[in-house]
């Protein structure tokens, strides 16, 4: 099964992808996590992406498509995968279609911008795994430490309020058109069109996980 999780920055894509990929035994492909790993390793892609990411802008389609194409060659993708943060532009969605990567489900996680600002200020991340916490809404068992490794959690450089606002603006301009793109495709009844579902992204992490698993297993 191949699934796209669509939603604004901070909608909870990474948090949910962690659970859904475990439940369905498919890998999570997070372009954001891949880029952060490249930045940390100071690879050529990482060096180019760092400034763009810190400013809350989108990395070029070419770089992203190259990363994703390489990742999809890995044998762990043979049973499917869960895209988190990709595609992010119409050009990326079109490229995926052109590569004949069959998508079965697109799940949109819907959260208002005002809620997102609160979420981002409390986010803490385990950089190596991408596991995500919130100091208030989804705290780790031990303050400041990852549950599975005990390693320290960090605050992302792009989580400053001003940068979050910029990322939201870019989301509405460049990524939100994918909602119409995928939901229109699904409603036209075209063969092989992915099923499109919008779910409410507020409530507890567990409630949202159950909503997503519910729509994935109900059809
Ligand atoms: P990326 O890492 O993909 O960032 P994003 O899409 O902006 O999304 P986030 O990771 O910020 O949010 P999320 O939806 O995963 O929410 P999370 O689960 O963490 O991309 C980073 C950058 O890389 C981009 O800005 C861009 O520069 C570049 N990039 C990446 N992909 C790209 C692409 N395809 N094309 C071009 N550029 C690309 O949750 C957020 C917080 O809320 C956490 O603290 C969490 O604990 C908390 N939370 C989660 N669920 C709940 C809940 N139900 N209630 C309360 N709090 C909750
Ligand atoms: Zn994320």
For the record, what is the CATH homologous superfamily label? P-loop containing nucleotide triphosphate hydrolases
Could you give the order of the helices and strands? Answer: EHEHHHEHEHEEHHEH
Residue-averaged pLDDT, rounded? 94
Helix content: 40-55%
> Largest sheet at a glance?
5 strands, parallel
Alpha-carbon distance between the termini? 12 Å
What's the overall geometry? globular
Helical segment tally?
9
- Secondary structure tally: strands: 7
Catalytic activity: AMP + ATP = 2 ADP
Pathway: Purine metabolism; AMP biosynthesis via salvage pathway; AMP from ADP: step 1/1
Region (NMP): 30-59
GO cellular component, one term: cytoplasm
In short:
The chain has 219 residues and is α/β, with parallel strands linked by helices. It contains 9 helices and 7 strands. A hairpin with a 6-residue loop joins strand 5 (123-125) and strand 6.
Describe the structure.
- With about 220 residues, the chain is an alpha/beta fold.
- The chain has one domain (about 1-110, about 175-215): P-loop containing nucleotide triphosphate hydrolases (Rossmann fold).
- It contains nine helices and seven strands; from the N terminus they run E-H-E-H-H-H-E-H-E-H-E-E-H-H-E-H.
- It has helices at about 15-25, 30-40, 45-55, 60-70, 90-100, 115-120, 160-175, 175-185, 205-215; strands at about 1-5, 30, 80-85, 105-110, 125, 130-135, 195-200.
- The strands form two sheets. Strands 2-3-1-4-7 form a five-stranded parallel β-sheet, with helices on both faces. It has a two-stranded antiparallel sheet with strand order 5-6.
- The model has no long low-confidence stretch (mean pLDDT about 95).
- Zinc ion (ZN) binds near residues 13, 30, 32, 84 and 85.
- InterPro entries: Adenyl_kin_sub (IPR006259), Adenylat/UMP-CMP_kin (IPR000850), Adenylat_kinase_CS (IPR033690), Adenylate_kinase_lid-dom (IPR007862), P-loop_NTPase (IPR027417).
- Pathway: Purine metabolism; AMP biosynthesis via salvage pathway; AMP from ADP: step 1/1.
- One of its GO terms (cellular component) is cytoplasm.
